[in-house]
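hi! just following up on the protien thing from before. the input was this:
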Amino acid sequence: MTTLSTEGSAVDRGDPADVDERVDVLLAGGRAADDPDHESEFAAFMRESAPALARTAWLLCGDEHRAQDLVQLALMRTYLAWPRARQRDPVAYARRVLANARIDAWRKVRREVLTAPHDLPDGMVAEEARSHADRDQLVRALRTLTARQRRVVVLRHLVGLSEQEVADDLGVSVGTVKSTASRGLARLRVALAEPGPIASTLPPSGSRPATGSPAEPGKETRA
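and the predicted 3d structure came back as:
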């Protein structure tokens, strides 16, 4: 299974000073909390979840600056919906905002300029493929997938969610997740036809991530 690491990356959002600044900005710009614990709970959630959300956002768009914008949007919307989101799964709620916002952008802009390999954030690579060329290859390959395929492949095989979690996050059935993942992986293999470390780590079509992998409504009519 292909796994990614954000450790040490500019997209990692793990810098305490940077995260604290984002917390202050969001709390200052959001609405006043009805619950006195609202702000403290959200601040803790943001510090804990921001790195993983940034990784997911980068995989969905392949651009560090757009990824930061997506994370900011997801956190703001989660904050505004916190009384409701906190009762269920705020991380899934934020991931759902990321996926839906990115799909909206894809619908508006059909073609995008791929970030040059040397501009890609350090650390956002498969464990077996850490060179700039391999990062570029992965992003280019993911861009050949349809919007739904990319969301499913990213969430299922790169983020490591279960089929049920992906289905719940995207508002589709488990069967749709399975068939979309199978087609997406097959298409990804074609894009990664050249032998290389990334292609060699892709799971066979229809396979599931290894046990122990870490545990996002809009629907599309075509996979």
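The domain at 4-201 is CATH 1.20.140.160 (Butyryl-CoA Dehydrogenase, subunit A; domain 3).
The chain has one domain: 4-201.
cheers
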